[in-house]
Amino acid sequence: MNQEIRERTKWFMDARFGMFIHWGLYSIPACGEWVMSEKEMTVEEYRTYFEQFDPVDYDPKKWVRLAKEAGMKYVVLTAKHHDGFCLFDSKLTDYKSTNTKAGRDLVREFVDACREEDLKVGLYFSIIDWKHPDFPKYGDRQHPMRNNEAYKEEKIDFDRYLDYMHGQVKELVTNYGKLDLLWFDFSYDDMTGEKWKATELIKMVRHYQPDVIIDNRLEGAGDNHGSIATDNPLIYSGDFASPEQIIPPKGVCDINGEPIPWELCATMNNHWGYCNFDHQYKTPEMLVRKLVECVSKGGNMILNVGPDAKGNIPKESVEILKEVGNWMDKNKESIYGCGISDLEKPDWGRYTEKDGVIYAHVYETPLGALPLYGISPEKLDRITYLADGSEVKRGEAWNTALYTDVAFVSFGDDPVFTYPLPDEKDTVL
Ligand code: H79
Hints:
Layout: H1 3-8, H2 10-15, E1 17-21, H3 35-38, H4 43-52, H5 60-69, E2 74-80, H6 106-116, E3 120-126, H7 158-175, E4 181-185, H8 198-208, E5 213-214, E6 263-266, H9 284-296, E7 300-305, H10 315-331, E8 349-354, E9 357-362, E10 371-372, E11 380-385, E12 406-411, E13 427-428
Parallel strand pairs: 1-2, 1-7, 2-3, 3-4, 4-5, 6-7
Antiparallel strand pairs: 8-9, 9-12, 10-13, 11-12
Ligand H79 binds next to loops.
């Protein structure tokens, strides 16, 4: 991985925690963003949602404030998902929020809200488009018309689609000021890299937005992170790997074993787009632990919400995010700017680390003493509960009453240590 990527992604790696927002026409049928494909709907059938779309409660400031309260540092909104509907005022299509009852450019209001609240702003853009007449249909396993014989002999001009797609990306990178992140989705089978004219696309993007961080999905697909993990990343390799709904066992490394930036994208229930019958939400505790797991493996987590058709984030999600926010209020120091520790993962939880400080996330309350294997007593400066700053006294019962599962262990003059330390005793709290 090159230096340029490292520098560009500095804020992103420090931020560690972001909010993903999947929102569009699919919030009306309310069974996830793949509904058009899953139900094999034609563009005409799906269009009824375009006619209905009327997000009377749309107030992105509320979304962004909630993200901030949860301790998130950046927010990414679906400017366009696979259905082709644009939340922005594209000059290249009529299929956009400006032509719905909303009557306005919803991306603009979102971008303004992020800036107002001082959060980094990102846009998700689908490189797949089920609405565009020149996107492959019959036989394409992702497309709603994959089984529709009516499209079997259809002639399409894929270059015309690419002009459209590139044109829309140009609109996004030129009309909304400085963007911090672009999230392209997704490559599959042989539809990857130059099939999207990715070199040309990225050259254009970088011309207007030299510092924008880009995901790896113009090239990478599934488990294959693409050339970002090699010594010679292509121009469109992206800046970070984007595992979906799975935390890689050892984080993500390049071929030399060097950690590279990555971001877990994850849903709170089991859908990205609003789904009114999916109440299988993860608990705040589980989500915090997933975040900690990502950080301990050198990655980020972008956690999704799927606002409903009126523009409200489901109340379950709001409640969960507030709980996560309570934890972050007390323990954020163990997340922001933190990363992989040299110490082995302890039995009782996880370590994150920053500038010679070890953050011990204690999941399992010890019976008595808490062993800090690999940390010699002489090297310990002080040990403190992160939540209230009180010292952790050795030999005393572990204080779980504080709901503080993070302690920090700060090293004195010499923060450097190696593991294992064969001649020195481990610390026992
Ligand atoms: O935008 C979100 C998803 O819609 C999109 N990426 C995230 C960020 C995405 N998720 N999975 N995929 C794209 C790959 C395709 C998965 C599929 Fe399926 C499996 C398509 C058909 C079978 C998932 C399950 C969607 C429909 C059923």
